[in-house]
Amino acid sequence: MQPREIAQSYINAWNCRDGNAIIATFADGGSYSDPMTGQALTGRAIADYASGLWAAFPDLSFEVVSTVEADDGMIAMQWLMRGTNNGSFQGLPPTGRMIQTKGADFIRVEGDKIRSVQGYFDTRSVPEQLGLQVIVLPERVGPFHFGTSNRAQSGKRDKPGAFSITVLHSRSDAEQAQVKNLGRQIVSDLIKQPGFISWVGATIGSSQLTITAWKDVNSVRNAMQTESHQKAATKFFGPELCASGYISIWVPERINPMWMRCSSCGTMVSSDKAEGKCKCGARLQEPPPYW
User: Fold this and answer.
1) Which helix (H) or strand (E) holds 262?
2) How far, in Å, CA of 103 to CA of 121, rounded?
3) How wide is the angle at C-alpha 53 spanned by C-alphas 93 and 76, nearest 5°?
4) What's the rounded Cα separation, in Å, for the pair 199 and 210?
5) 238 CB contacts (<8 Å, ≥6 apart)?
6) Whole-model pTM?
7) C-beta neighbour count of 35 within 10 angstroms
8) According to the model, what pLDDT value does residue 222 have?
9) Which CA distances in Å does 61 have to 9, 82, 102?
10) Are 2 and 86 in contact (CB under 8 A)?
């Protein structure tokens, strides 16, 4: 087979979603890498990587746009990737959205096998098409460490009577993804609890922090008995999950009233006393949730 035909058989194996066929196109020790792999993959790791993409995008396909062959067995192949996100992608639930992105593979062929594949594509394109935020932050600057955060709210505007704070330290990226998945299950159950007000989660390095606002302390205790919370606790106290962590309950000494600025006269007005109106007679906006 000619290098161009070998490169096409590699693409065909991807389109057939056949991990063993992909591996078969590589020479012993042949490697694959792209902006998402973090390092060169060989052997079964290549098929496992492909399987992860097929799980996230079951109809994943590559359309070859152009192929250029150099004299030294190097094939430059431009492609268009399409797929529908019907499975978990990077630990997140499926969006059902279709994606389409351009990329290129530089495929080095030796004899009748592939020695290496180096793929290139825009790493922002797929997340943005899935409706995901792509935020670039430094790992740290001086005493400040950076990460990501998210929030879930019930819409209630009650003053919190208690806060539960959980801190977990993961041992690997895979474990961190597992913690996030368990966390989503827990929050889905917490929202159904009558005393739940809102939840904020943050991931900074290997640490994951959650702060949940509650109507009172009893609401926290009841929530800790949910099936999802018990499942996570079993994994934590067993051999499966995290290097360390703790949970705590905090009761506020004082929470001041929500102050609202009148859009008419600019005065700050206590929402507890204003009854929806400023002294100037203008109606105030509805106060946001406390947490």
Assistant:
1) none
2) 4
3) 140
4) 7
5) none
6) 0.62
7) 11
8) 87
9) 14, 5, 12
10) no
Residue 163 lies in a domain: yes
Residues 114, 68 share a domain: yes
Max mean pLDDT among 2-11, 174-183, 237-246 falls in: 2-11
State the pairing for strand pair 148-153/98-110. Answer: unpaired
Judge residue 22's burial from the number of C-beta atoms within 10 Å of its C-beta, 0-12 exposed, 13-18 middle, 19 or more buried.
Answer: buried
Residues 244 and 261 reside in one and the same domain: no
Q: Rounded distance, CA 93 to CA 77, Å?
A: 32
**Residue 91, helix vs strand vs coil:** coil
Q: Which residues of 48-63 are buried (b: 16+ CB within 10 A; e: fewer)?
A: ebbeebbebbeebebe
Four-CA torsion 58, 64, 69, 75, nearest 10 degrees = -20
Closest CA to 8 of 83, 79, 82: 79
Mark whether 246 and 268 lie in a shared domain: no
How confident is residue 110, by pLDDT bands cut at 50, 70 and 90?
very high
Q: Which residue has the tokens 């919190």?
A: 160
Are 71 and 166 part of one and the same domain?
A: no
